[in-house]
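User: Some background: our group keeps a shared notebook of sequences we're curious about, and every so often someone picks one and asks for a predicted structure to add to the entry. Today it's my turn. The entry only has the sequence so far, pasted here. Could you supply the structure so I can complete it?
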Amino acid sequence: MKSYWALIKRELLEHRGAFLYAPAVLTIALFGMIIFSITVGDTEYRHTVSGELPVAWMNTGVELYVLALAAIFAMWSGYLMIALFFYYADSFSADRRNNSLLFWKSMPQSDLKILTSKALAGISIFPLLIFIFALITGFLAYLMSFLIAARIPILPLIGPAEMLWAWTQMGITGAVFFMLSILWYAPILAWVAGLSTLVQRWSIPLAFLIPGVIVLVERITSYGRGGSRPIATYLQYRANGILDDSQVFQQMINGLNFSPFALVAEMFAQIDWVQMVIGLVVAAVAVYLASEYRRRRLEA
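Assistant: Of course. Here's the predicted structure to add to the notebook entry:
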């Protein structure tokens, strides 16, 4: 277990730029721009905003804060998925470029153990770091609400107790959303990781090019026949995520009564668990095959 922790810690040290430094810079830049726009922006916000907000938000700020938290978690979730995509496209072959693979093999550490540690880092410590940044962003958004309310008095404020309760509920909801999204996209991440083992830095363009060619061939062969396109349909289904047809977000936008835990219940009810398990099996097989390729290639 200590060797696994050492391997995962190595991944953190090697990729802290994407999962630690860059999110910190983005957070500072985002709130810097918000503060700048509030302090020197247009003074005619009040009349514009009052005509656009749902009536329910004029009475309480809880719904508005919950919607802001939902947007924050959605934003950081998008960042996490993009960062993980590039992480897996690089990490499975990075140690072959700098010869550290020879060092870890001499300890000895098996290729399966090394690649498993990389996969575990991508579904544990890196999402945890981004989740912490999401929580920090949500807290800073509450502090910013006082500055915004000073410029736009019509916007309601919420007390610390209400804020803490909404922040906690949405934090739990966001954590569930992060983890389920990662597990749902696991075969896509494993796909680009496996390609990186074979073609290294060409894995990113090929990750899009190969499915694109397959879908194009499917479309050409089915043209004029009125037949279904199962490959294209399935790829779109996978890419849409776990909340493709969610009605809860629409309730939030309309300012209706909403419990963050309702979103958790909808996520669990909406997920195709059979496809989830199939995707995880495919991801595990991809990691195993990649480790076997690395082992045989090095020994050769």
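Suggested note for the entry: Residues 240 and 264 are 18 Å apart (CA to CA). The two ends are 29 Å apart (CA to CA).
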